[in-house]
Specification:
177 residues; alpha+beta; Cathepsin D, subunit A, domain 1; six-stranded mixed β-barrel; two-stranded antiparallel sheet
Length: 177
């Protein structure tokens, strides 16, 4: 009985939403997932997540968009589309912004075709990683857009990121996020 219930729940969890590039973002997996993170580099939260099948280190930043370093995106062979925008960060202009979609895994939740921006983060990474252990390559930032979509809760005392598959909402007769 429990096994049948689990299978039904996993099938019901799959959700879709429209991505920025017109592709459909698909969210599947466990209803809730808890992902540990570490505080590194002068108390910045760093989490390991799946990006297109491999595990990679990223910062958690509630004040930023989800970003990938452009050199990392090129190493993955991602097809990027140039935008007319210049990315601007806390330290000023960061350069030309490109966009692409990736598959992201946070614990047991999988997000397929998630739209992300790609910019040169090398100077930013160099400035924040000048102190602390250098055993984890940083490849990007998980920002407010993805954290909000997954109804994330960040527990800094326990170093845990809890993410949830959002409940579907009805819009124009279609179920969407």
């Amino acid at each position: 009985m429990l096994r049948a219930f689990t299978i039904i729940c996993l099938i019901a969890v799959g959700q879709t939403a429209s991505g920025a590039d017109g592709s459909w973002v698909q969210i599947s997996g466990s209803r809730t997932s808890v992902v540990p993170f570490e505080m590194r580099y002068e108390n910045k939260a760093v989490v390991q997540i799946g990006i297109n099948g491999g595990m990679h280190g990223v910062f958690l930043d509630t004040g930023a968009d989800t970003l990938l370093d452009i050199a990392f995106a090129k190493r993955l062979g991602l097809r990027m589309v140039e935008t007319e925008d210049t990315a601007v960060g806390f330290s000023g202009a960061l350069g030309k912004r490109w966009t692409t979609t990736v598959d992201i895994q946070l614990g047991e939740i999988i997000i397929k075709n998630y739209p992300v921006n790609c910019i040169d983060l090398s100077d930013f990474f160099a400035s924040v990683t000048r102190t602390g252990r250098q055993d984890l390559a940083l490849e990007g930032v998980i920002g407010d857009d993805l954290l909000e979509l997954l109804e994330a809760q960040i527990d800094f005392r326990k170093h845990r990121l809890t993410v949830h598959v959002p409940k579907p909402k009805e819009q124009n007769g279609r179920t969407r996020h």
